[in-house]
Every structure is written in structure tokens, then in C-alpha cells.
């Protein structure tokens, strides 16, 4: 059986409530819809459960990202089964409870969806066989619990509590991820099976202390251990069903679950005892003591939960097999009595309208049935005999007596345990006496309170019945499950233990009685203690936490505000400074300033052209404030660059550069029509110096790099292209064959980018209104004659000639310099010349001015050529070629790549014209407006 | 000759960088154009320099490296597309903000 499906079921189930809600507003139907898939999951567990009870560990795995060691691997052993039952079973009870808890006004569909989302995440945590997968689900529980705690998002407390829980557990999750990655590094696998048998290897590793600390950070934050416990009381802002589910049975148990899960791999060392047992003991005592002083019903339960989680952690920390068994046992018991107590608290809140124990008194008279249930559960929490809490607490007391880790100070452990027990009895007594007796209710918002709806009590009844059944007949109820779960925790044979009510008159029993009577005594002294507590300086964790978060936020926005000040110049300077720093620090590490090969000899013409290029580039910069002059200098640079390509055996590049140059200058001139002709001098001297420095360093660095490469020994993959160009690609112009054949896919991407850029420009130009200057900076108007006759006369006959050349360049491209790019650019230039000479209106009277289809057709054609090779069973863009004989023209070779090149041609023409013609049209609009 | 090309690249990059750091859109566009010339020549030079060794099969026994040429060819065209896009972006920004300052507000020197 694939357990991925099991884990998936609650996630799918999360879709059900919103769906049901769409068709019906019946709340019972909604709850049934929510319960449907979890029930199915629970039923699906029956058969595997039998195998697990027979001693098997069931695994199922599907590879996800094998290269990262991540797989959808799931594992069902005793421990996973125990938690799966808790997650699904208590989850279903909570759904039933929430049906009556939520008022008709509330968005129940959303609530159930969040709840099921959490259920799926939690189920994933407990059944993952891959540690990375487990961390993934772990984070999902943090996220979904954020949604649940903040469900009443109109309340400030709920929002802040949710944020705090999310921050604390989320940070723990990050630490856990780091710990898990380190475990994977040490063990060489993230598979739980592998990790569990590699305990010795992990503990021998020098990374062990770090791994342990990181994993324990995850555990302690999730399970609210001291000093990370403070989020749990604030999470009580959640609706009570959420507290009953997350904060008693599941989410907070994820931490101790992980202690159990990794017990064979990480436990057994002194470090483990020192950290885990200390944190556990501190949490146990702190939680128990503070719980007594809470006046909020749920606050008491929250601190009690913290205390019990501390107890479980302490048991795991004792490094004893029996203690681990006791820990697992207490996990079960705590889940049952605490979930029922939360539900009872919810009922009381629901019926009285308050959770303040100073107002809720004497409810025995009004709701005796609920009172009995709550009192039994509280007694279990206190560890009263014949209830489940008693059994695990006895085992706990016995284990603290056995431990000898602390040497001569070993008596500290049983002392602390008894003290914890005393407080635990005291706050349980308060829960019973203060709420159900102790006089009359004071000023209740809802008066008189009465019993809740019948079925709201059912979940509480079931859980309380379990408490009693386990307490009285442990061997017939929980023993089997406990045995397999403990076995899976220990990863080996079980130690001998007895689940019985009567162990004879021994030390743990004495401790139990001391706790019982001590607790009652302390409760009887509560008035004095409350006064004492009230006089203590108040410390609200939320204020401290919020203060720190806000300080962090201020720091972040201060840094952001400084770096991200909205100035593009500043960003560019930062980026370029980084480049300069990299160049300055890395260039000196190079072996030398000159490569091994000799340089080509210098000749006069090259020197002259280079001189012109450098001069033109410098002039472009120096004169950049005189924009028209600057453009002219720029065009000289472009022309010289194309000459450079000619000189160094790159005719294709020269052709392309030349035609692009023409189009670029046209574009810049067009833009000039709308822009100021001059730039004001506004840069400060400091800024100019800084920019010159940056420009100088970067330019020099790049020049040095280029020089080193050019004079170095070059090895290239090009011999392959040169060799296969003719036989493989059917063309002798290797550059073109690379473009349309070898690297055709790249070219396809590039023409797509071209098309996108053109569309982007079109979108930007839409509805744009720009007023051009009527006069230039010197007060000269634009030429009156926009279309000089000479230009018009010359340009018109040029069009067919230029087109002919374009066709020629295109056709010969496969074998001689040319091809789709160049031909496309030449065509564009020829057409643009008509625009310039005769005007947009004249051109558009004679040909369609809509170029989108051309771009689309080009990309489509290129794409289809590629797809076409699939038809013949070849990969994308495989080309073919053959010889043809045409009368008059002669023998020539036709390659399918030509079709692709046609696509390139069309895209280039379409894109170029789309850009420029639309920009040109803008001036037309401007003219019209002026004329009107 | 290699030294000459290296100097050319250096000058193109330097002037490009300097203009890119200006406060008005037009010089920035010019700067990016210069910078893309520089980068194109730089990429081209990665294949080494050869004179009269066009990479056409059958013309030369030891032709130049065609691969950087193919890369630069598309880079030139895309560079143009980017320039055009920037120009139009600059125009749009001018239309929206009524200034040709790169930050869209004419407050002079901002930030650092």
C-alpha cells in the first residue's frame, strides 16, 4: 500500500468543506463532508495496523528529487501508527466538537479546510521516512497552525498570537532543517531507516553537538519547552477546538515525537541528558507552577500542557529505555485527558461566555454532566489512581529514582518530579474546585448556564472513557499499541515493564501521595499565593516579543530605506562598485598580464580606425549633453565596430552590425523628437569623479581580461562545428549553420525575446501622449519640409533594389555571409527609409501597418519547423537538406533550416518595424493634435 | 593588434559605464548602447583574432572560431531590441512623470 495516498487524503479533504459550503449551508452536512476523508484514512489504516502489530515496519517510496536525496518515502511502524491514530482519531472528534462550537455566523468551511490541512501536514510528519520530507511537513504544520490560531483574525490577540507561534516554530523549523542536512551529510542518506541504525556514526562525528543543538532547537520550539514556551499561552487565542487538537494532542507533540523518532540516533550521550533533561525539568516545574496562577481557564490548561510536555521531554532525556517507554505512554495519556479538558473548557466558555475562573464558580448546579466529565479528566491530569495519568506518572516517578546521571545530586530528580506533581495536583484541584464549586457564579455574560447540545459532549465522553479504560485495564487497552510504539522508538527489544495499577507499597507510590496531599495543601493556601503572585513584577512575554519584532522591523526598514532609496543612479553605482571590487581583488591573482601566444602585427589602417573609434566613443561621452552631436558620434562608433568585425574575419557580424546601426540611429533620432535636445549639467564634482573612477576601473579590468584571453592558449569546441557544418547542416557558412541548425534552439529563444520586446514596446506606446518641442534649445523650429523631395525621389526606386539584395543575402546565407537576421534587418531598413522619406501615412496607405501578425508568424514558423522534425521521429529542430536542380538557376541545395531562417527573417522584420513604426505614429498623433 | 582591441573594449566599457551613471534617460540609453558594443566585441574576442580566415568551409584551411560570432550575431540584434525597449520606456516615463530624470522626479541628485 502506498502511504502517500494516506497522507494525501486529509489534503484532499481540505477541499471538501469549501465545496460542500457552496451547495449547502447545513452545518452538520459540512462537518460530515470534512470528516469523510479522514474517516476513510482511518479505515485504510486498519489493515496495515494489523501488520504493524505483527511486528512489521511498512515502507513505501516514490522518488521525487533523487539527486537531492529527497523522496516521497513513508514509513508505518509502531510509533507512526500511534501518532497516526492520535492525529486522525482526535481530529475526527474535534471536527464533531467544532460542529457545535462554531456559531452559525462563522466561516466553518474555511475552518475545516485549515484543520484538515493541518491534519495532512501532521500525518506527513509522523509517517515520513525521509528526513527532508519530514521537515517539509513540519513547516507545513507551522504554516497551517498559523492559519488556525489566527482564525478569528478580527482579534488583535489572535493575530499577534498566530504571528508569535509562527515566528518561534518557524525559526525552530529552520534550525531543524540545518540539523537534518547535517545528519544527511554525516550518514550519507536522509532515509530514516539508515539514520536510525547509524547512531554510533552520528555520535562519533565532530558535528554531533551541532546536530543535536539544531535538532533540539526544532523540538523545543515546537513542543514549547523552556525558554521557548512563551508562544503557547498566546496561541490560546485560537478557537478552542484548535487548542484541543493542536495544543494538546498533535502540533506540540510533534516536538516530542521527533525526540522519540530520532531517539536511537541521537540519545545515549551525556550531552543529550544535559540538554534534554535540563530543559524538560525546567519546563515541567515552570509550567506547573505558573499554571496555578492563571485565571484564564485555557491559560491554566496551556501552562499545564507546557508542564506535561516538559515531563515527556525529561523522560526522553533520562537516557533509559524504560523512561522512553514511559514517555511514549504519557504522550498517549496526555493527549486523551488534555484534549477532553480543552473541550470541556470550550463548553464552559460556550455556555457562560467567559473563561475567567474568578467569575466562573459553582457550575456543578448548572451543568453536572459536563462537570463530571471535566472532573474525571482533571483527576487524570493530576495523576489520581485508577486513571491513565496515574500509570504514566508512577512510571515517571520510578524512573527519576533510578537515574544516577547526577551522581551525588541524583536526589534532585525525584525531588523536582515530586514538586512538579504537587503543583500539577494543585492546578487540577483549582480547575475542579474553582469552576464547579466555590460558591456562586459572578456576573456571567450568559446566565444561567446550562448543558451544551447532546453531541457536543460525545467527543469529551469518548476521551474520558478512554482515560478510565486505560487507567483501570491498561493491559487490555493500551498495552499492545504502547508496546509496538515503544519498540519502534527504541529501535530494538523492549525492556521489561508492567502496566498495572498496583505495584505494591513502594517509593513512587509515596511520591504520588506526597504530590496529592501537597497539592491539595497548596491549593488551600491559594489566596495567600495569589496575593504573592500579584505582587511579583509582571512580565508579559507578548510585549517583550512584539517589542523585539518591531525593533527588528525598524532596523530592517532603516537598512532598506538606506539602500533602496529610489534612486536608479545609486543602485547602478552600488552594482558597478561591486563589479569594480571583484575586478580589483581578483585580477591581481592572475598569473600574468600577457598570455603565451604572440600578437598579430599592427598595421596603419587598423590603428587609424581604432583611433577614430576611441575618439568617437570619447566624444559621445564628452558631448553627451549635446544630444544630437552625441548621436552622430555614436553612429561613428557603431560603424567602426562593424569595420572591426570585417577586419577580423567576421563578415556576418559586420553586416548585422551595420544594419542594426542604421536602425538604432533612426530609433534614437525618433526618440529625440520628444526629448529635450540638451541635458542640463547637474552632476556634482564628487559624483563625476566617482563615476569616472568606476568607469576607469571597470573598463581597464575588462580590457585586461580580454587581452589575457586573446593572447592565451585557446581551446574551442568549434572544430566540431567546422567539421560537421557541411555534411551535417548542409551549409558552408558555419556561423549561419550554427544559428539555424546546431544552436537553433538558442536562436528560437532569441527571436522569441525579440518578439516579446516588440510587444512590450507596443504596450508601452499605447495611449501614450507626448508633446514634442516645437523649437530646439536654440529656438530653431523643426524643418517645415518634413519630406524633402530629393529624399522621396531617391528612396522610392531604392526599395525594390534593397529588397532584392535582402532576398539575395537571405538565400546565400547558408553558404556565404548573410542569413535571416541580416536579410531581415536590410528589409527593415529599406521599409523604414520609406517611412522617413514619405511619412507614416503614405506608407500605411500602401501596405498594412500592423506588424504583430508578422512577428507571430515568424516565431510560429520557426517553432513549427522545429516541431516538424517530431513528425519524422527526430528531436526538436533536427534539420534535413537535399540538392535540387532548377532550370536556369542551376544546382542548389535546400535545407529545412531555410524555413527556420525564414521564421527568423519574419520576426526580425516584424519586430523592428513594430518598434519604429509605432514610435513614428506617435509623432503623427502629435501633429494631428497640433493641427486640430 | 590584440592590445589595440583590448584598448577598444576598455574604452567602450568605460564610456558606457560612465554614461550609464548619468541622471537623465537619454545619456543612459547612449551608455547602454556603448556598453553593448563593448560587450559584443569582448565576446567576439573570446574566440581569438584572425585576419582573412572567414569561417566558411572550403575557403580557409585554418578558419576563425565561428561560435562566438554566432553568439554575438544574436546578441547584436537582441541588444538593439533592448535599446529600443529602453528608449520607449524612457519616453513613457517622460510622458508619465513629465521629466526625463531616471528616477521619475526632477529633484536633482538623490541618494548617494
What does this structure look like?
Chain A is mainly α. Chain A contains 40 helices and four strands. The mean pLDDT of chain A is 88. The two termini of chain A are 79 Å apart. Chain B contains three helices and no strands. Chain B is elongated and about 60 Å long. Classes of the chains: A mainly alpha (932), B mainly alpha (112).
**Coarse shape of chain B:** elongated
Mean pLDDT of chain B: 87
The succession of helices and strands of chain B, N to C, reads HHH
The first-to-last residue Cα distance of chain B is 40 Å
Radius of gyration of chain B: 18 Å
Largest interface: A-B, 116 and 87 residues
CATH architecture of chain B: Orthogonal Bundle
Cα distance spanning the termini of chain A: 79 Å
Question: Which structural traits does this protein have?
Answer:
heterodimer, A: 932 residues, mainly alpha, 3% strand, B: 112 residues, Helix Hairpins, 3 helices, 0% strand, MrpA_C/MbhE (chain A), Putative monovalent cation/H+ antiporter subunit A (chain A)
Amino acid at each position: 500500500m502506498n502511504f502517500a495516498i494516506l497522507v494525501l487524503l486529509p489534503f484532499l479533504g481540505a477541499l471538501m468543506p469549501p465545496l460542500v459550503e457552496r451547495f449547502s449551508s447545513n452545518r452538520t452536512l459540512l462537518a460530515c463532508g470534512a470528516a469523510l476523508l479522514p474517516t476513510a484514512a482511518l479505515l485504510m489504516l486498519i489493515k496495515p495496523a494489523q501488520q504493524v502489530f505483527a511486528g512489521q515496519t511498512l515502507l513505501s517510496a516514490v522518488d521525487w528529487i533523487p539527486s537531492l536525496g529527497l523522496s516521497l518515502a513513508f514509513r508505518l511502524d509502531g510509533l507512526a501508527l500511534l501518532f497516526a491514530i492520535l492525529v486522525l482519531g482526535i481530529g475526527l472528534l474535534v471536527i464533531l466538537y467544532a460542529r457545535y462550537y462554531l456559531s452559525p455566523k462563522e466561516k466553518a468551511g474555511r475552518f475545516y479546510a485549515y484543520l484538515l490541512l493541518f491534519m495532512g501536514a501532521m500525518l506527513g510528519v509522523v509517517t515520513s521516512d525521509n528526513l527532508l520530507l519530514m521537515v517539509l511537513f513540519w513547516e507545513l504544520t507551522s504554516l497551517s497552525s498559523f492559519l488556525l490560531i489566527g482564525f478569528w483574525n478580527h482579534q488583535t490577540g489572535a493575530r499577534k498570537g498566530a504571528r508569535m507561534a509562527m515566528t518561534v516554530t518557524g525559526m525552530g523549523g529552520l534550525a531543524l532543517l540545518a540539523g537534518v542536512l547535517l545528519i544527511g551529510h554525516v550518514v550519507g542518506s536522509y532515509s530514516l531507516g539508515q539514520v536510525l541504525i547509524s547512531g554510533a556514526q552520528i555520535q562519533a562525528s565532530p558535528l554531533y553537538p551541532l546536530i543535536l543543538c539544531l535538532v533540539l532547537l526544532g523540538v523545543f520550539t515546537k513542543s514549547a519547552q523552556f525558554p521557548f514556551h512563551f508562544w503557547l499561552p498566546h496561541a490560546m487565542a485560537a478557537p478552542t477546538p484548535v487548542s484541543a487538537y493542536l495544543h494538546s494532542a498533535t502540533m506540540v507533540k510533534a516536538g516530542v515525537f521527533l525526540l522519540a523518532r530520532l531517539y536511537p540516533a541521537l540519545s545515549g550521550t551525556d550531552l543529550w541528558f544535559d540538554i534534554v533533561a535540563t530543559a524538560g525539568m525546567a519546563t515541567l516545574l515552570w509550567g506547573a507552577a505558573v499554571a496555578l496562577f492563571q485565571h484564564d481557564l485555557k491559560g491554566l490548561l496551556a501552562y499545564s500542557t507546557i508542564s506535561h510536555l516538559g515531563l515527556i521531554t525529561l523522560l526522553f532525556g533520562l537516557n533509559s529505555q524504560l523512561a522512553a517507554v514511559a514517555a511514549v505512554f504519557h504522550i498517549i495519556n496526555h493527549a486523551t485527558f488534555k484534549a477532553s479538558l480543552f473541550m470541556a473548557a470550550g463548553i464552559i466558555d460556550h455556555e457562560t461566555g467567559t473563561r475567567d475562573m474568578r467569575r466562573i464558580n459553582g457550575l456543578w448546579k448548572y451543568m453536572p454532566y459536563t462537570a463530571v466529565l471535566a472532573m474525571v479528566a482533571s483527576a487524570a491530569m493530576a495523576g489520581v489512581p485508577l486513571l491513565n495519568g496515574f500509570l504514566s506518572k508512577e512510571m515517571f516517578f520510578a524512573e527519576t529514582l533510578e537515574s544516577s546521571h547526577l551522581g551525588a545530586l541524583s536526589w534532585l530528580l525525584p525531588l523536582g518530579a515530586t514538586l512538579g506533581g504537587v503543583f500539577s495536583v494543585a492546578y487540577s484541584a483549582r480547575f475542579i474546585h474553582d469552576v464547579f464549586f466555590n460558591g456562586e457564579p459572578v456576573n456571567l455574560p450568559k446566565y444561567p448556564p446550562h448543558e451544551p447540545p447532546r453531541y457536543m459532549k460525545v467527543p469529551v465522553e469518548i476521551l474520558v472513557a478512554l482515560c478510565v479504560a486505560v487507567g483501570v485495564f491498561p493491559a487490555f487497552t493500551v498495552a499492545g499499541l504502547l508496546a509496538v510504539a515503544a519498540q519502534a522508538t527504541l529501535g530494538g527489544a523492549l525492556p521489561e515493564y508492567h502496566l498495572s495499577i498496583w505495584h505494591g507499597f513502594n517509593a513512587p507510590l509515596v511520591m504520588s501521595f506526597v504530590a496529592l496531599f501537597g497539592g491539595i495543601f497548596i491549593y488551600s493556601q491559594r489566596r495567600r499565593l495569589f496575593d504573592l503572585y500579584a505582587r511579583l513584577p509582571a512580565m508579559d512575554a507578548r510585549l517583550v516579543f512584539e517589542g523585539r519584532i518591531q525593533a527588528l522591523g525598524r532596523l530592517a526598514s532603516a537598512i532598506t530605506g538606506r539602500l533602496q532609496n529610489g534612486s536608479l543612479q545609486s543602485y547602478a553605482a552600488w552594482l558597478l562598485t561591486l563589479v569594480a571590487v571583484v575586478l580589483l581583488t581578483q585580477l591581481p591573482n592572475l598569473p600574468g598580464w600577457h598570455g603565451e601566444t604572440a600578437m598579430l602585427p599592427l598595421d596603419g589602417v587598423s590603428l587609424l580606425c581604432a583611433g577614430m573609434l576611441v575618439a568617437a566613443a570619447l566624444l559621445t561621452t564628452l558631448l553627451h549633453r549635446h544630444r544630437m552631436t552625441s548621436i552622430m558620434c555614436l553612429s561613428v562608433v557603431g560603424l567602426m565596430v562593424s569595420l572591426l568585425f570585417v577586419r577580423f574575419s567576421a563578415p556576418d557580424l559586420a553586416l548585422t552590425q551595420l544594419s542594426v546601426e542604421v536602425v538604432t540611429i533612426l530609433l534614437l533620432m525618433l526618440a529625440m523628437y520628444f526629448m529635450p535636445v540638451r541635458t542640463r549639467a547637474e552632476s556634482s564634482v564628487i559624483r563625476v569623479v566617482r563615476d569616472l573612477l568606476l568607469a576607469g576601473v571597470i573598463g581597464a579590468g575588462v580590457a585586461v581580461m580580454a587581452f589575457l584571453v586573446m593572447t592565451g592558449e585557446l581551446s574551442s569546441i568549434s572544430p566540431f562545428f567546422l567539421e560537421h557544418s557541411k555534411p551535417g547542416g548542409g551549409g558552408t557558412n558555419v556561423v549561419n549553420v550554427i544559428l539555424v541548425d546546431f544552436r537553433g534552439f538558442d536562436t528560437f529563444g532569441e527571436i522569441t525575446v525579440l518578439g516579446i520586446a516588440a510587444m512590450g514596446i507596443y504596450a508601452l506606446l499605447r495611449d501614450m501622449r507626448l508633446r514634442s518641442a516645437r523649437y530646439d534649445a536654440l529656438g530653431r523650429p523643426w524643418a517645415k519640409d518634413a519630406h524633402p523631395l530629393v529624399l522621396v525621389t531617391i528612396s522610392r526606386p531604392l526599395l525594390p533594389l534593397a529588397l532584392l539584395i535582402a532576398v539575395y543575402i537571405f538565400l546565400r546565407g547558408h553558404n556565404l555571409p548573410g542569413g535571416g537576421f541580416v536579410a531581415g534587418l536590410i528589409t527593415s531598413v529599406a521599409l523604414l527609409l520609406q517611412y522617413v522619406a514619405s511619412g507614416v501615412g503614405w506608407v500605411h496607405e500602401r501596405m498594412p501597418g500592423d506588424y504583430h501578425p508578422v512577428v507571430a508568424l515568424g516565431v510560429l514558423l520557426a517553432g513549427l519547423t522545429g516541431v516538424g522534425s517530431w513528425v519524422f521521429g527526430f528531436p526538436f529542430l533536427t534539420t534535413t537538406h537535399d540538392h535540387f536542380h532548377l532550370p536556369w538557376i542551376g544546382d542548389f541545395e535546400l535545407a529545412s533550416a531555410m524555413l527556420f531562417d525564414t521564421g527568423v527573417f519574419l520576426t526580425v522584420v516584424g519586430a523592428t518595424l513594430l518598434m519604429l513604426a509605432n514610435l513614428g505614429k506617435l509623432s503623427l498623433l502629435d501633429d494631428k493634435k497640433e493641427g486640430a | 593588434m590584440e592590445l589595440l582591441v583590448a584598448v577598444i573594449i576598455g574604452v567602450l566599457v568605460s564610456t558606457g559605464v560612465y554614461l550609464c551613471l548619468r541622471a537623465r534617460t537619454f545619456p543612459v540609453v547612449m551608455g547602454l548602447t556603448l556598453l553593448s558594443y563593448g560587450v559584443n566585441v569582448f565576446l567576439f574576442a573570446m574566440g581569438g583574432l584572425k585576419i582573412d580566415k572567414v569561417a566558411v568551409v572550403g575557403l580557409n584551411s585554418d578558419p576563425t572560431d565561428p561560435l562566438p560570432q554566432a553568439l554575438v550575431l544574436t546578441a547584436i540584434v537582441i541588444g538593439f531590441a533592448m535599446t529600443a525597449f529602453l528608449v520607449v520606456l524612457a519616453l513613457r516615463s517622460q510622458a508619465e512623470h513629465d521629466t526625463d530624470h531616471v528616477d521619475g522626479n526632477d529633484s536633482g541628485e538623490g541618494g548617494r
